[in-house]
Write a structure and sequence with these properties.
Keywords: Hydrolase. 28% of the residues lie in helices and 25% in strands. The N terminus is likely disordered.
């Protein structure tokens, strides 16, 4: 990676700008000139203070900080040649007497679009494929077993413009992007989760926001359609697709049981819980969200889901500011505008023991590789007993009453509230 007038240092295998350019976060996507909160804290604190702050922010895995791991030179070379961030970590589990470790390597890719939104659609899509391919190759070279891309990775996140021409990016489950990834899945013996804009040709060409699960043999294992559709500011996506109809499927692969909670579904605790009840060990959350709207929530919700449901969570968010040719409004009183704001990346992994990795860059294309022992899921279930102590019968009764038109909340009022003053 070439840098002009900047010194690059290596810290534990990670490239860091020792003297970063302090650009405005509105234009560069940086945080006070740094690539991530992790970089900012490390630069600003003494080593002892940074270690203690990291313990509080990132938790401890089996009593120790989450380990970094070294990846093959092939992956590092691709990272340097194509200028994407590459980070790798490892979640351990306790050694067991009756079970062998269940080690799996999982990858997350975040990326910006490659061509302006004014370019012909075919050129935009082809350019994204070209940009993502070397990152996919680096994942394969790193021995990744399961890989997930970001929400609607094949296109700009144009859904909130409310312009129907963007529907041209929609494709069948076995369409162009799936065929592109099937070849790589076979080549690297890798399961790939591909979130796309789906065109359901069987049902009147209905549009869905869908994740296609591609098996390590290049086969299509299945699909999941986004359960919850936002109607928040610019993100009013029901112009294009409505709530999905696939339930909460968990896909059993040779490497483990995985599920996909697409974007806005992360705000719904019962959505997370349903994937856990169906047996998920890893849940991916491919997303597209901007700083002004959601960044304070981003490091909390998925991590809480991993803790509450005893599974690993991979959170992916795209990067960059995507500017569209025509201005649009959101109905929130703000003047018309041509972009949604900055997609702040910050993809990361959370573990069921409350530990998590540092986040990826807020503005660069990136690949995160995480090695994990899936035995940790059951170990944490045994430790905390959340499933055993849950009161599902009470929740069922409450929800059954709540959905009825004549529902009355269970409120016990203080009798003194209704007494007249003497």
């Amino acid at each position: 990676m070439e840098k002009i007038n900047e010194k690059i240092v290596i810290d534990n295998g990670e490239k860091i700008d020792e003297h970063p350019t302090h650009e405005s976060s509105n234009t560069s996507g940086s945080i006070c000139g740094f690539e991530s909160l992790h970089h900012l804290l490390r630069s600003s604190l003494s080593p002892d203070a940074f270690q203690e702050v990291s313990r509080l922010l990132l938790g401890m895995n089996c009593g120790k900080p989450v380990d970094r791991i070294t990846l093959p030179a092939t992956a590092s070379n691709l990272s340097s040649e194509h200028n994407f961030d590459l980070q790798a970590y490892c979640f351990h589990a306790q050694k067991e007497s009756l079970r062998v470790p269940r080690i799996v390597r999982v990858g997350l890719i975040q990326n910006s679009i490659n061509h302006p939104t004014t370019a012909p659609f075919r050129e935009q899509k082809s350019a994204i494929f070209q940009k993502v391919k070397p990152i996919l190759e680096a994942a394969g070279a790193s021995g990744v077993n399961i890989l997930c891309l970001q929400e609607a990775w094949t296109m700009p996140f144009a859904f909130c413009t409310r312009e129907k021409s963007w529907c041209e990016f929609a494709e069948p489950v076995d369409g162009e992007s799936t065929q592109f990834l099937q070849e790589l899945a076979r080549k690297y013996n890798m399961v790939i989760v591909s979130p796309i804009l789906e065109r359901d040709v069987i049902h009147g060409e209905t549009i869905w926001n869908t994740a296609v699960i591609i098996g390590n043999h290049g086969n299509i294992i299945g699909k999941h359609r986004k359960n919850h559709i936002p109607r928040v500011g610019d993100f009013n996506e029901s112009t294009y697709y409505m709530e999905g109809n696939t339930g909460h499927p968990v896909f059993e692969t040779v490497f483990g049981k995985i599920a996909v909670n697409i974007c806005y579904g992360r705000h719904h605790p019962l959505n997370w819980m349903a994937f856990g009840l169906n047996g998920a060990e890893i849940v991916f959350n491919p997303s597209a969200t901007v700083g002004e709207l959601s960044e304070p929530m981003w490091p909390i919700e998925a991590r809480n889901a991993a803790i509450a449901n005893n599974y690993f969570v991979g959170s992916i968010n795209r990067v960059g500011t995507e500017v569209f040719p025509n201005a649009f409004t959101s109905g929130d009183g703000k003047p018309q505008h041509k972009d949604f704001g900055h997609f702040y990346g910050s993809s990361h992994f959370s573990a069921p023991d409350a530990s998590c990795t540092p986040s990826l860059s807020r503005y660069r294309d990136s690949l995160m590789v995480v090695e994990m022992d899936l035995n940790l899921c059951r170990q944490i279930k045994d430790k905390w007993g959340f499933r055993m102590t849950a009161r599902y019968e009470l929740y069922q009764e409450m929800l059954g009453r709540y959905i009825q038109p004549d529902f009355v909340p269970q409120i016990v009022s203080d009798p003194c509230l209704h007494k007249k003053a003497a």
